[in-house]
Structures are given as C-alpha cells and as structure tokens.
Amino acid sequence: MLERELQVSASKGDAVAIRDLLARGAGIDARDDGGRTALLLATHANQVDAAKVLIDAGADVNAKDTINDSPYLYAGARGHLEILKMTLAHGADLKSTNRYGGTALIPAAERGHVETVRTLIEAGVDVDHVNKLNWTALLEAIVLGDGGPRHVAIVKLLVDAGANVNLADGDGISPLQNARKHGFTDIEKVLVAAGAR
Fold first, then answer.
1. CA dihedral of 106, 100, 147, 155, whole degrees rounded to 10
2. Angle of helix 149-160 versus helix 185-193 axis, rounded to 10
3. What is the mean pLDDT of residues 129-152?
4. How do residues 150-172 score in pLDDT, each as one tens digit?
5. Among 116, 119, 145, 188, which is most buried by a count of CB atoms within 10 Å?
C-alpha cells in the first residue's frame, strides 16, 4: 500500500522515496492506526528534508492524530525549529491545542526551547492562553522548568511579549509565588521587575 510506504519513508527521512510515492498517487494525508499522517511521522523523527517535501506538496500541517498532536503542535512542543518554521509558513493554526488544551507555546516553554518560544511569540501565539491544568506558558516555565538559564530566558521572552505576570494557577498561586516556592531567584527578579505580586 502506497500510503504505508509513504509513512515509513517519512519516518526514515527518505525524501526521494516520498517524491516517488506522491508521484505514484500516495494519499499525502492518509493516517496510520494512531491517526498520524506521513508529515507527523517525519516531524516525530525530526526529518527536516522529508517534512519539507511533504509540506511543499501540500501536506496538512494541522492534521491531528488520535492524541491531538499535529505536525505544528509536535514541532513546537519538541523544539523541532526548522519543521516548526515550515509549518508556520504553511498555515499552522496558532489557536490549535494539544490534548492538555495547551498551545504549542506552553510545552515549548516548559521544556526550555528558547528559540522555539521566541518563534512562536513572533508568530502571534497567545502568551496568556490557559490550558486544562490552569497553567499558562509562564507558569509551566516556572512550575515544570529547572530555573536555569534557558527557563530564565523564556520567562524574559514571555514577560517582554506582554504575558500577564499575575495570572495565577488553578490554586490561586501566582507565577511569583511559584518562583519563590522553587527557589528560582533569577526568575523571581525578572517577575518583580515586571510588576509581579
């Protein structure tokens, strides 16, 4: 089956095979058992060349699998910057959310992907979006981050982009209170300077 071959080729990053299979009529957005398209499989493996061929051929950058991941959301969450930029240039839905109700910005902030966070902010993703856990990107960078240089840089980026530094979590604990609780003094300084209470 051409579609299965396309998905395997995408996972392996075989751009030549992908072009051939598409020319032979393989359905570009066909799904595997997990609802994953060839582009999502290429994104999982960070196969940039394969992703480029698929995106240039019209693959849907917003096609979600059974756990609500799309190529755009997954690239953002994992910090696969080159693929992320391609999805943004080809109609990524900035309002789409993952299984936790979060935008691509939230896991990117949590995982310390500084350039990804910068790219998503510049693209216009809502910096104050609240996910199902009642956390924003700012809160995730603090609560789930390590307080190190990458997370400090991300907090600065979010603050500079206008993130609400007093938007508390579901328990009413503010970003500043969370930073203090974790002993993240560098993040605390950034928040205080931005008017956090």
1. 20
2. 10
3. 98
4. 999 999 999 999 999 999 999 99
5. 116
Q: In terms of CATH architecture, what is 97-197?
A: Alpha Horseshoe (1.25)
Residue 71 sits at the vertex; the CA angle it makes with 144 and 67, to the nearest 5 degrees, is 65
Judge whether 1-93 and 97-197 match in fold. yes
For the chain, give the number of residues: 197
pTM across the whole model: 0.96
- Write the class of the CATH domain 1-93: mainly alpha
Write out pLDDT tens, residues 56-97. 999 999 999 999 999 999 999 999 999 999 999 999 999 999
Three-state SS sequence of the chain: CHHHHHHHHHHHCCHHHHHHHHHCCCCCCCCCCCCCCHHHHHHHCCCHHHHHHHHHCCCCCCCCCCCCCCHHHHHHHHCCHHHHHHHHHCCCCCCCCCCCCCCCHHHHHHCCCHHHHHHHHHHCCCCCCCCCCCCCHHHHHHHCCCCCHHHHHHHHHHHHCCCCCCCCCCCCCCHHHHHHHHCCHHHHHHHHHCCCC
Kindly report the CA angle at 98 between 31 and 109, in degrees rounded to 5? 130
